[in-house]
Amino acid sequence: MTVLPLPAAHALLPNGLRDLLPPDAQDEAQTAQRLVATFLANGYQRVKPPLIEFEESLLSGAGRTAAAQTFRVMDPITQRMMGLRSDMTTQVARIAGTRLAGAPRPLRLAYVGQVLRVRGSQLRPERQFTQAGFELIGAADEAAVAEVLLLAVEALDQAEVTSVAIDLICPPLVPALTRALGLSDAEAAEVRDLLEQKDLVAVSQTVGAEKARLLVDLAACVGPAERSLAPLAALALPPEAAALRDSLVRLVRQVQEALPTHDLTLDPLEHHGFEYQTGSAFALFARGARGELGRGGAYHSVLADRDEACCGATLYLDAVLDVARRAPVPPRVLVENDLPREARRALQAEGFVTVPTLAGPASPEEARRLHCTHFLGPDGRPVPLAP
Amino acid sequence: MTVLPLPAAHALLPNGLRDLLPPDAQDEAQTAQRLVATFLANGYQRVKPPLIEFEESLLSGAGRTAAAQTFRVMDPITQRMMGLRSDMTTQVARIAGTRLAGAPRPLRLAYVGQVLRVRGSQLRPERQFTQAGFELIGAADEAAVAEVLLLAVEALDQAEVTSVAIDLICPPLVPALTRALGLSDAEAAEVRDLLEQKDLVAVSQTVGAEKARLLVDLAACVGPAERSLAPLAALALPPEAAALRDSLVRLVRQVQEALPTHDLTLDPLEHHGFEYQTGSAFALFARGARGELGRGGAYHSVLADRDEACCGATLYLDAVLDVARRAPVPPRVLVENDLPREARRALQAEGFVTVPTLAGPASPEEARRLHCTHFLGPDGRPVPLAP
Predict the structure, then answer these.
(1) Which among B19, B46, B358 is the nearest to A143, CB-wise?
(2) Whose CB has fewer CB within 10 Å in chain B, the N or C terminal residue?
């Protein structure tokens, strides 16, 4: 296929939005399908929420962090504002808490779909993503998070994305610690920024050496799990932080046992983009992918009078496609457009794409012109075109 | 799965938008995948345009009829208006005419995706549809339309939608006739309305008995092809109308030969919703489906300095799902959540969904509570739950 990568052609689309061309569009669809097949085989059932819904339901609960990233449109029928989803997790939680409120817990739901964001990031200029994910509704302990993490890795493995590296984090851990240390909200926010910049000296200057000690000790636990897990487990922490840490440590041990050859990194200071996580969480990476392959963790779904502990994972198809094995391009054979259906189907069953000719005979020249790999010989068998 | 069909739960979503729940969401995805697999096996290559793009490209050419049905959003980056697609045909034509301008013709492209419409119709209140379709770019004679029509029927057949009924139409035929009769635009529009109401007396009164004769003769050709084709072929028409009619007749004969047992209906007066068709066109129906399964036909893609004859077909998944065979629901077996991966994968290879237990042992009672069909016996084999 001759593709024109002209700037003029690109400029037809808004920044961050793009056309997927052959073979990428099919590769993405096939990879999404393989990921979902693994979710379904493991007890998750597919749901499909709409692309737009009332902004008050789309941006409630865990969705409120998405408000700035959500396109709004007016519904001319109800005269109410609707939002174009920028994430599907809130929608799945809404379905679980309303239409499926009576289904037994834990409830396992899977989804795949498009999401749109008002702005791309520097790392990911794209504004439309394909998300494939699943949610475990009604469970969020480390066994639940482990199920979700291991299933995400298994799905990637089935899509032939191997050598996945895992970051294990606990977004509420630092806030629990700063609360226990009696820091004000302003001090806590400043400390988070300084920890992120690894400026431990400034942390000490801000809150004093005594209060900084635990934070500095925690910062020393960032690194490969085989080196960092023991010091993290040994830290003397105040009760709330200790409970979160203990849960993270149990999760890491479970993941180490299940995935002994994967790279596990502990990052108990990480929190960006995980604002709605209420316990252990994770991000998945692979060499060759521009950004995260996916992420997940524990959160709460709060809907009207119902508050459910949940966990889930989302995979981003654009990043997964950077590293997933691409399906081989099938051979294409030019056939007369009146070739009987049975003959055509027999060639397709052998793995050929049959390309009907519309102008003139199905000659080798026409086959070459239409980017076929084969033409039909006099005996009706495909003959490869000379290279 | 216990589903609450409460009005309160429904009211969470804007009118015409809905959640697909298990098993419908998976049935839709699987049916779409089967349709596309047939398109791809027959030489069409998948493309995936974005959900939103600049309205001037989305609503240009054949897309201009969609303007009233298109949600608009402002792009905060470029400050230009973007539209949420209400149809994918224009997007695929744009791709063909820009990025793939250098690809050999005929160019065969397939797609599946969501479209959104500002308002639903009485027959179809839905405002979000899944479209699966394909476009044949650079060909629009009756051989091309026949390829497209027969492939659409074959794809439905592969999705186990049988007994498809076909309406064959020619939207530009009546306009060609009214032009040849020298009717003004206003008279022509009035005549179309009257023909639609089958008010042939009023047609005569409006344009006079002599001019009305051909229109009345044409109206007599509406009906089953085996009865109506011969009179349509025999009509003495002015040249432009005769050429369109001849092409329709050749198409009908080709379809009769290929699909001898299908119901074919001629409706040379039909034009609603086919405003951008430039030649023969068709709509597909099946008993049990609320609306059309799909439609297609010949059109022109006009992009900047390029004008290409095209034809294509679109299938609507909501209507197709009304009549497609649903996949059997797989058996679900409850397993301990630490069941080794190999044992789990072996059960999945046998067709079981494995549902991990998170609370307590994988007992028959827990299996029943989680809507499983089986539990694991002491020998590790699935045991069906007593009904």
Answers:
(1) B358
(2) C
ipTM: 0.93
Q: What is the SS3 assignment for A3-69? A: CCCCHHHHCCCCCCCCCECCCHHHHHHHHHHHHHHHHHHCCCEECECCCEEEHHHHCCHHHHHHHHH
Instruction: State how far residue B151 is from chain A, nearest Cα, in angstroms.
Output: 10
Domain B12-163+270-329 has CATH 3.30.930.10: yes
Cβ atoms A376, A362 nearer than 8 A:
yes
Structure tokens that stand for B185 in this block: 């635009």
With beta carbons less than 8 A apart as the criterion, state whether B40 and B112 touch.
Answer: no
Residues of A in contact with B148 (CB under 8 A): none
Amino acid, single-letter form, for residue B43: G
- Cα gap A286→A152, rounded to integer Å: 13
Q: Which residues of A make up each annotated binding site?
A: 87-89, 117, 131, 135
Contacts of B145 in chain A (CB under 8 A): none
Q: How far apart are CA A318 and CA A325, in angstroms?
A: 13
How far apart (Å, rounded) are the C-alpha atoms in residues B84 and A345? 37
The stretches of A208-351 forming alpha helices (DSSP H) are 209-219, 225-234, 239-258, 317-323, 341-349
Amino acid present at B139: A
CA angle A148, A150, A156 (to 5 degrees): 105
Does the distance separating the beta carbons of A337 and B51 come in below 8 Å? no
Instruction: Walk along chain B (387 residues) and give the pLDDT tens digit of each residue.
Output: 555 544 444 458 999 999 999 999 999 999 999 999 999 999 999 999 999 999 888 887 667 778 888 999 998 888 899 999 999 999 999 999 999 999 999 999 999 999 999 998 877 789 999 999 999 999 989 999 999 999 999 999 999 998 899 999 999 999 999 999 999 999 999 998 898 888 989 999 989 998 899 999 999 999 999 999 999 999 999 999 999 999 999 999 999 999 999 999 999 988 777 677 889 999 999 988 888 999 999 988 877 667 899 999 999 999 999 999 888 999 999 999 989 999 999 999 999 999 999 977 899 999 999 999 999 999 999 999 988
Closest CA to A137 of A87, A62, A31, A69: A62
Q: Chain A contact for B7, CB < 8 A?
A: no
Q: At what angle do helices A200-207 and A185-196 cross, to 10 degrees?
A: 160
Residue A254 forms contact with B (CB below 8 Å): no
Residue A363 contacts B, CB cutoff 8 Å: no
How does DSSP assign A216-233, residue by residue?
A: HHHHTT-EEHHHHHHHHH
State how far residue B65 is from chain A, nearest Cα, in angstroms.
19
CATH number assigned to the domain with residue range A1-161+273-329, chosen from the 4 options 3.30.420.340, 3.30.930.10, 3.30.300.20, 1.10.240.10 = 3.30.930.10
- Å from A127 to nearest chain B CA? 10
Q: Is B344 marked as a binding-site residue? A: no
- Pair of tokens at residue B22: 């298990």
Report the relative pairing of strands A264-266 and A165-169 from DSSP bridges.
Answer: parallel
- Structure letter (DSSP) for residue B100: T
Which residue of chain B has the CA closest to A95? B19
**Domain-wise residue ranges, chain A:** 1-161+273-329, 172-269, 332-384
Q: Which residues of A touch B118 (CB under 8 A)?
A: 76
The first and second tokens of residue A167, run together, are 């970051």
Size of interface A-B (CB pairs under 8 A): 254
Does B15 touch chain A if contact means CB atoms closer than 8 Å? Answer: yes
Q: Is B119 on the interface with A (CB under 8 A)?
A: yes
Q: Would residue B364 be called left, alpha or beta, if left means φ above 0 and alpha means ψ between -120 and 50 degrees?
A: alpha
Q: How far is A318 from chain B (nearest CA, A)?
A: 13
* Cβ(A94)–Cβ(A101) below 8 Å: no
